[in-house]
Specification:
Elements: H1 2-29, E1 32-34, H2 41-58, E2 61-67, H3 75-85, E3 96-102, E4 107-113, H4 115-119, H5 122-137, H6 141-161, H7 176-200, E5 255-256, E6 262-269
Parallel strand pairs: 1-2, 2-3
Antiparallel strand pairs: 3-4, 4-6, 5-6
């Protein structure tokens, strides 16, 4: 009887230990969870490879989760809990960031954890969303996720090498329309200058600048002249108050998830 019980215990240990190892490792390895089926097979492979490459290089977890529905959960709670209970994050502080996309109500939410709270501030989340939301709204999901990964990589690198991007210290963006418009305007200015130079070389009669130039010398004599001051108009404007840089805000607002872990983040509709 004891031998049978001992053998049964060995079988149970042999079954439970490997499965426990798989459960501990698998969530960390799967950084793209496309439950909503927004990506093709090739797109999934490309995005998953990029997530793995950047995450391992930075030692900073970058996760993308798409769902058809999150039920009655709030996007913030769902994103935080998904990150926590799927064992994501590097180091004891679980450094990383997760982007949730829920198709039912077209919600998106970013959850930051550990060093993610430092590297991607509230202003940073607004910047990231401005960059990927146009593609997300138009159904260009692969392009949206690709932009998100690139920007996360850039934000973490900048935070570690210099300081986190935040209010008054955000990456420079260049508007293609403004660049084209500026080029056209510069060309127009150059054209006006060239035409003016050629017109100045013409030997033609020109208009006089002042009425005095039309008067024949000695034909008119002014006996008396006076300048009469009629009125003045003074406009007063209040001088803007100076504000100190210390009162400009910035940083990340944090909250506690159901696991008790601290998270930053933000989200909206797309």
């Amino acid at each position: 009887m004891k031998k049978k019980l001992f053998c049964l215990m060995l079988v149970l240990i042999a079954i439970l230990i490997p499965s426990g190892v798989i459960m501990a490792k698998e969530p960390h390895d799967v950084r793209l969870v496309d439950e909503a089926g927004l990506l093709s097979g090739d797109e999934q492979e490309k995005i998953r490879g990029k997530l793995d490459s950047v995450s391992e290089k930075q030692k900073f977890e970058i996760v993308i989760v798409t769902m058809d529905s999150i039920g009655a959960s709030y996007p913030e709670d769902f994103a935080d809990d998904y990150y926590d209970y799927h064992n994501y994050g590097y180091n004891d502080s679980r450094d990383g960031i997760l982007l949730l996309v829920s198709m039912e109500d077209r919600d998106w939410h970013i959850s930051t954890t550990g060093y993610g709270v430092t590297a991607v501030t509230d202003a940073g989340i607004e910047y990231l969303s401005d960059r990927f939301l146009p593609d997300l709204s138009n159904g260009n999901y692969a392009a949206a996720f690709d932009t998100f990964i690139d920007d996360c990589d850039r934000f973490v690198t900048h935070a570690r090498n210099d300081k986190p991007y935040d209010e008054g210290n955000m990456p420079k963006t260049y508007n293609a329309l403004l660049i084209v418009g500026g080029s056209v305007l510069a060309g127009l200015i150059i054209a006006i200058i060239v035409v003016s130079v050629f017109m100045g070389q013409l030997k033609s009669v020109r208009a006089r600048k002042t009425a005095a130039e039309y008067i024949v010398t000695g034909s008119m004599k002014v006996e008396d002249s006076r300048d009469i001051y009629l009125y003045s108009n003074v406009t007063k404007r209040a001088r803007p108050k100076q504000t100190s840089s210390s009162s400009s805000g910035g940083g990340s607002r944090t909250h506690r998830s159901s696991s008790g872990r601290s998270h930053g983040g933000g989200g909206g509709k797309f």
